[in-house]
Amino acid sequence: xxxxxxxxxxDAAPDGAGRAPKRARGRQRVAALLDAATLVFAEKGYxxxxxxxxxxxxxxxxxxxYRFFPSKExxxxxxxxxxxxxxxxxxxxxxxRAPDLTAGDLVDALLDLMxxxxxxxxxxxxxxxxxxxxxxxxxxxxxxVQGRIAGVLSAYAPALPADRxxxxxxxxxxxxxxxxxxxxxxxxxxxxxxxxxxxxAYLTAAVADG
Length: 210
Hints:
Oligomer: single chain
Largest sheet: none
Shape: elongated
CATH class of the largest domain: Mainly Alpha
Radius of gyration: 19 Å
Number of helices: 11
Number of domains: 2
C-alpha cells in the first residue's frame, strides 16, 4: 500500500487536499468515497475507521482513494465540507420556495432535509468530537446553517424584523437538530410526527408575534 500511497501523494495538490476531479467519472468516484467515508465514520468513529475499509466500501482501489484524499484527515475534511455544502444548498432551495409555502409545508421541507442528511449529521458529530479544531469547525458550520435558516425565514415572512429572524432561526436550528436523534428512538415515526406539530406551532406563533 505504501507505494500506492506515495504515487498518490505525488499527484496531490500542494495544500494536501488531493487532486480535484476534472471529469464526471472522477466526480462520481469522489462522491462514492465520501458516501463510504460518511458511513464508516458514523459506524466506527474516526480513530477506528481505516482508509482500506473506506476504499473497499466504495469499491475503489486504495490508490484512487489516496489520489483524491492523501490522508484520513483530508477525507474527514471532505465529509465535513460536503455536509456544509449540501445543507446550504438544501436550505437555499427551500428559501426559493418559501414565499409560496404554508407553515406546514415549510416545516415538512425542513424536516425532510434533516432526515436526508441524517447519516451525515451522525458522521459530523463523530468527526467534531475527534478533531482538535472542533470548536472552530462546529461554530463555522453552525453559522452556515443558521444563516441559511435565517434566509428561509426571511423569505417566508419578509415582514419579520431582522432581530426576530435571528432569534427564531437559532430556535429552529436547535429544534431541528433533535430530529436525527428522534429517528433513532423506538417510536421514531410517532416522535417525528410530534416534532412536526411542535415546529408548526412554534413557527406560526413566532411569525404572528413578530
